[in-house]
Amino acid sequence: MTCAGQGSSLGVCKRDIDLTKSILETASPASVPQHLPKHVAIIMDGNGRWARNRLLPREAGHVRGISSVRKVVRAAREIGLQYLTLYTFSTENWRRPESEVRHLMGLFRRYCRADVEKLHSHNVRVRFIGARSGLAPDIADIIESAEVLTSRNTALNLAFAFNYGSREELAEAARLLAQKARDGVLDPNTINASMLGGSLQSAGLPDADLVIRAGGERRLSNFLLWQAAYAEFVFVDKLWPDFDREDLLAALNEYARRDRRFGGISANERTRSSMSDEHVDAPISAEAIDAE
User: pLDDT tens-digit profile of 166-214?
Assistant: First the structure.
């Protein structure tokens, strides 16, 4: 899980600085770009390494990560993002030591109990994607209560990918459609991408426009494999506990510089192509091609 906490009074060596350096550093604070992505998804990675670099237990990195969650959520609301999804706890994270998992579940309880009411007061809608089965009953209740409480809010849509794995999400959607086909309520020949997407745990959320990964790794780690089909990716070397508003803004500005074509051509290329077509009087002959 990518959660957060308290800092350390220990000195930071050059290796620590290198490990936490953002690849999107700017000389001056970044401004809010005019063109914002509708849906930003973040892989919050690096809590354990942040703690190890400071000779602290891994749990200290998770605690520190919570403060980064709060900073980024606050910034997203102030900037005007519509959708923000945070990769909080993956289905693979259950493989971690039992003591660490227990600590992460405790942090989740504390964060929700401390912050959901505040989020609600700021008109933030909270939802969770991921498997509900296998969770402790009180955690399942916390999730349901948070979703019900904030269901009518209209500002930032904040989703936590908790107990989430994209492959299992896709498999679950396939099972659901297969069952409907078996029961005779769905013609298998009518199944299309839209129908499959609407059967996912994330149904109702738009596809991700921008995926940010903190911590220096360059992979998706089973996160939003379907929903990120045409997302832009920004990989940041800074570890999650050090990630803040400026890093989010830097990633948003990088996104604004990207030219998203979705398999086609850019607007500038279409304009040039149209202007070029106006000057074509005749098709190019086979002889002209052979001469080249």
Answer: 999 999 999 999 999 999 999 999 999 999 999 999 999 999 999 999 9
Name the residue type at position 265: I
CA-to-CA dists, residue 6 to 50, 57, 67, 249, 260, angstroms: 11, 12, 8, 24, 39
Given 45, 209, 242, 247, the catalytic residue: 45
Q: Into how many domains does the chain fold?
A: 1
Q: Kindly indicate the confidence band of residue 264, based on its pLDDT and cuts at 50, 70 and 90.
A: confident
The verdict on whether 93 is a catalytic residue reads yes
Does the residue 284 lie in any domain? no
140 located within any domain: yes
Specify whether 16 is catalytic: no
Residue 8, in any domain of the structure? no
- Sheet of 157-164, strands arranged across: 125-129, 157-164, 83-90, 39-43, 210-213, 232-235
Which is catalytic among the residues 93, 163, 209, 247? Answer: 93
